[in-house]
Design a protein that fits this description.
By secondary structure, this protein is mainly alpha-helical. It has helices at 6-26, 30-54, 59-89. The protein is 75% helix and 0% strand. The chain is elongated and about 55 Å long.
Length: 102
């Protein structure tokens, strides 16, 4: 049998967070950057639930539910900003949109 411990979950969480961080730093499309931020949020949720599972506590799961609720609100506001920006500047490329003036 496979023995899956806390270190496996934390390793997976770290890998997901690094992938999300690299996507934020490298990509230039606002939608992709937004999805990478959500990936980083899910990596943090995974580590919180893993710690709660390891400590036989419900605190990490409660924090994860709170983070999911905040991420849903962030998704709504973020997508609204992206849609407004794409209508105004006619692009979602970060390099082409330098300022929000005019």
């Amino acid at each position: 049998m496979l023995d899956v411990g806390l270190d496996h979950f934390l390793f997976l969480s770290a890998i997901l967070f690094i992938i999300g961080m690299m996507g934020v730093l490298i990509r230039r499309n606002l939608i992709v950057i937004f999805m990478c931020v959500e990936l980083m949020t899910n990596a943090v949720n995974l580590s919180l639930v893993a710690f709660a599972w390891n400590l036989n506590s419900i605190d990490g799961q409660a924090f994860a539910l709170f983070i999911i609720a905040v991420a849903a609100a962030e998704a709504v506001v973020g997508l609204a900003i992206i849609i407004a920006l794409s209508r105004r500047a006619h692009t979602i490329n970060v390099d082409e949109v330098r300022t929000l003036r005019n």
